[in-house]
Amino acid sequence: MTVTSRDVAQLAGVSQPTVSRALRDDQRVSEATKDRVRKAAERLGYVPSDVGRALSSGRTRRIGLLLTDLENQFYPHIIAPAHDQLETHGYQLMLHTEVADTDTVAERLISNGLDGVILATSTIDSVVPLRLRDRGLPFVYFNRTSSGVQADSAVVDPVRGMEEAAEALFSQGHRRIAAILGPANTSTAINREMALRDALDHYGISIPGRYVHRGPFDTATGQAGTEQLLALPEPPTAIVCGNDVVAFGALNAARSAGARVPDDISIIGFDNLPTASWPIIELTTISYDLNAMARKAAELLIERIETPGRDIEEASFPSRLVQRHTLGPAAS
Fold first, then answer.
1. Domains and CATH numbers, the chain
2. If DSSP states are collapsed to H, E and C, what string results for the chain?
3. Cα within 13 Å of Cα(122), Cβ side
């Protein structure tokens, strides 16, 4: 015979709705009652039905994480902390991918019965946030934001990290500094470029157009940009990359061209991915608490789902420079 929540309620001496709330870790139920209900459920071998919970509460307790670039080494590092934070509150993380940011993506997210969505690859001109807002599906921005719709967000503030990078570059004698930046329609590329230019301007250094390369946040962009920069009659002595993945491509290109890092060219990344600290790479990069940022995005979304009328929160995480092997004195 199938054990029901009614059986658990009878054994625990509570009402059936209290059983549902206790097993969802609802804050309205005391810890003593939650403990009594959990012990009763364990004793009876009761397993809550996701379908039943969805029907009774109107929620599936499923959260989507939208990614459009599974090959990018950045995104796997946010899945575990977001999953763990959501699981603590009784939510499941579901990965959703799409090759393009279109109306189709938004409709697919809406039709999948999600309680909310973490948007991790938004562009500033994306229609997805607009469609989700119009359909009443809660969402939160992670890392990138869109200019069209205000929403909760967990992002990195690049200013301090870029200031420290500019100070380190200047003190090492670098004056010809290049930048390999991300796509112009992403908030991360825009904010990091602005922070870098402002920081270098403090030392009277500008980045001329011939020293700027733009493209997707991938190794191919770093490879192509560095090849072009090293082929210039007067190549830069340092390259600041939009993220670590781009910097990995830059390191590959420098190695292929026979340029020594950091003797001939210094390279700086952004994100401080675990790979950046490997002894074979030792990338100087700008760091922030990526795990905490992913957990915060999940937390903000849960709060938005459970308290729809709360004020919008923009969580900003500070950055700092981590100096390793790829930054050295400017080549003479």
1. 5-57 (1.10.260.40), 62-155+289-317 (3.40.50.2300), 157-288 (3.40.50.2300)
2. CCCCHHHHHHHHCCCHHHHHHHHCCCCCCCHHHHHHHHHHHHHHCCCCCHHHHHHHHCCCCEEEEEECCCCCCCCHHHHHHHHHHHHHCCCEEEEEECCCCCHHHHHHHHHCCCCEEEECCCCCCCCHHHHHHHCCCCEEEECCCCCCCCCCEEEEECHHHHHHHHHHHHHCCCCCEEEEECCCCCHHHHHHHHHHHHHHHCCCCCCCHHHEEECCCCHHHHHHHHHHHHCCCCCCCEEEECCHHHHHHHHHHHHHCCCCCCCCCEEEEECCCHHHHCCCCCCEEEECCHHHHHHHHHHHHHHHHHCCCCCCCEEEEECEEECCCCCCCCCC
3. 32
Cα separation, 295 vs 18, whole angstroms: 28
Q: Please write the tens of the pLDDT for every residue from 28-40.
A: 889 999 899 888 8
The CA distance from 288 to 313, in Å, is 19
Q: Tell me how far apart the alpha carbons of residues 50 and 60 are, in angstroms, rounded to a whole number.
A: 7
259-297 tens-digit pLDDT: 999 999 999 999 999 999 999 999 999 999 999 999 999
Q: CB–CB of 257/224 below 8 Å? A: no
CB 49 within 8 A of CB 8: no
Give the pLDDT of residue 302: 94
Structure tokens of 271?
């994100």
Position of tokens 């191919």? 220
- DSSP E strands: which ranges in 3-115? 62-67, 92-97
**Nearest CA-CA partner of 156 in 32, 25, 293:** 293
CA-CA distance, 274 to 286, in Å (whole number)?
A: 12
Can you tell me which residue has the tokens 């420079």? 321
